[in-house]
Amino acid sequence: MKVLITGATGLIGSALTDLCREKGISVNYLTTDKSKIKNEKDYRGFYWEPKINEIDVNCFEGVTAIINLAGATIAKRWTKSYKKEILSSRVDSLKTLYIALKNLNLEERISFISASAIGIYPNSLSNFYTEEETSLDSSFLGDVTQIWEKEIDKFQDLKVTVTKIRIGLVLSSEGGALPNMASAVRRYLGASFGSGRQWQSWIHVNDLARMLLFVAENRLPGIYNGVAPNPVTNSKMVKELAKVLDRPLFLPNIPQFVMRLILGEMSYLLFVSQRVSSKKIEKKGFNFKFNNICRALENIYLEEVNEDNPDDVLAKEYV
Asked: Does the pTM of the predicted model rise above 0.90?
């Protein structure tokens, strides 16, 4: 088996690459930074520039699965120009891959697995979303995810098995939201947001990497939620993190208008509620190593080395 990974040097891509190499699976990866191109046994880098639809088509040689994780982080202030980048980084990457694959005239069917996001589901404190949900979120993230998935669906015209993984809050000490949340708690600044009742559907980064590879190995088509079996409220998340880090929580909940002043429109990420099911992927035989938030956080902070920057400003604590 050989996989081609886009976004291989990002948070999820790095974990997936490590897992593949541990299992002896050959990895090709695409990068926009020529200095990051390596040519090692079973690990080869190739250059691409999605903004101009440029790609080294040698990256597809011998590949049986493509795992697309490309896209600018949403954890950065949503200025007008950056919102355009969030969308274009996802769409341009998919268009570049689509054009290249279409021109290759594939002789054998391969798997095409792309990241999506649970942001497509509407904000709700009561609903429990499965992959069959048809109602859509009307926020900026909801709009981005809908456009993103329409581009992914176009690959069904090619000789590929298409899978969309709607990813939730990814937990890791290496990046994403968790290190900044932990830094706030360690500095006695931890607190829930708003009512604290909003649902957070999370997944340990290692389970997500395993899920992506599981889908590739089993050639599973369709949509799967990339979340752990037990979503938690924001209040529960913060309390469990404080428990693992052995810090008290004494600050009151932070009102939405305060975070809106600090982070602007991006503060939506802290207050949106999406309770999402993992049953579909479990029924296919996937087993999570980290089913519960307490076990996931203990693994990350009691078994891994995590370093925080004590000089982070307050605004960055909640990105």
From this structure: yes
